[in-house]
């Protein structure tokens, strides 16, 4: 069993992983790089395992991730305890690390952040079909995912469904789909895809009965705003969050290719710190209610 873990060493670990380097951690904590190195060496000796993978940026080993999770949870619990006892806060806001998809960040999640005071947000972007893995690894305290399946040690609540529209510019439609949408024309028209994890276009094609369309040129665009602009400029067609293209469809800059499509989203959070995350959970669910259609 581990004895008491030095809080200063845990702070050094967190700072390295947040800044990406020993020098950055030293600057953040106001100590020398050698002091950071010594703290990590003592902590690794104490744990009996390496904690940091040296690189640019530095990253955590499995043991390092678990210790970081512990440090983040302790900081959040202490913050809640100070509030419960009416004690003067330390002035350091606890950090909440959340995994979510880029489209949620671009359309509604900032509304949840605006409703929370006294907490630092550390947001990790990943596809909604993969963000739950961050929670499973213990790399985040909460996650927005497309899966309703409970992660061990976590609770889950539905948020609603983010609506999408398959869109393209009028000129693009005239060039590639003059005779209408079909498997043949879709296999020739350039398609927009966020990244290798993005399966929205494929699922829309299958939902509309076009099957697995192969051979189409693909533009990889890992930016929600660039995705919309690329559709407007006639670079390709793709699935965009409806809140981001509502006006463009209304004024004719984009054409709705038909076929309503939505992605259900779920809020998962670490059960051990559920009470401390309650304000975040309330803000996230409230912001989602303002934005989403029902699942």
Automatic annotation (TrEMBL):
Q: Which PROSITE patterns match?
A: HTH_LYSR
- The entry's keywords: DNA-binding, Transcription, Transcription regulation
Which GO terms of the molecular function aspect are on file? DNA binding; DNA-binding transcription factor activity
Which stretches make up the HTH lysR-type domain? 5-61
One Pfam family here:
HTH_1
Does the keyword Lyase feature in the UniProt annotation?
Answer: no
| Family designation | Belongs to the LysR transcriptional regulatory family.
- Please give the name of this protein: LysR family transcriptional regulator, chromosome initiation inhibitor
Origin species, per record, is Pontivivens marinum
């Amino acid at each position: 069993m581990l004895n008491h873990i030095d809080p200063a060493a845990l702070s050094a670990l967190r700072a390295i992983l947040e800044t990406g380097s020993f020098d950055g951690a030293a600057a953040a904590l106001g100590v020398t790089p050698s002091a950071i190195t010594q703290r990590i060496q003592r902590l690794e000796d104490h744990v009996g395992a390496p904690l940091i993978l040296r690189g640019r940026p530095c990253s955590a080993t499995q043991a390092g991730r678990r210790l970081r999770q512990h440090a983040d949870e302790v900081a959040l619990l202490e913050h809640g305890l100070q509030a419960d006892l009416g004690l003067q806060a330390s002035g350091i806001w606890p950090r909440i690390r959340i995994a979510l998809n880029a489209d949620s960040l671009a359309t509604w999640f900032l509304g949840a952040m605006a409703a929370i005071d006294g907490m630092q947000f550390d947001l990790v972007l990943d596809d909604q079909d993969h963000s739950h893995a961050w929670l499973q690894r213990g790399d985040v305290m909460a996650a927005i995912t497309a899966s309703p399946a409970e992660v061990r040690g976590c609770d889950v609540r539905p948020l609603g469904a983010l609506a999408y529209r398959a869109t393209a510019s009028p000129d693009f439609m005239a060039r590639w789909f003059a005779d209408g949408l079909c498997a043949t024309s879709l296999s020739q028209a350039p398609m927009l895809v966020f990244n290798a994890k993005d399966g929205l276009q494929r699922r829309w094609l299958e939902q509309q009965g076009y099957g697995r369309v192969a051979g189409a040129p693909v533009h990889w665009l890992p930016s929600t705003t660039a995705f919309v602009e690329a559709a407007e400029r006639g670079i390709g067609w793709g699935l965009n969050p409806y809140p981001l293209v509502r006006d463009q469809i209304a004024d004719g800059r984009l054409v709705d290719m038909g076929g309503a499509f939505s992605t259900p989203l779920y809020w998962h959070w670490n059960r051990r710190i559920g009470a401390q995350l309650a304000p975040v959970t309330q803000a996230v669910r409230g912001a989602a209610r303002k934005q989403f259609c029902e699942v």
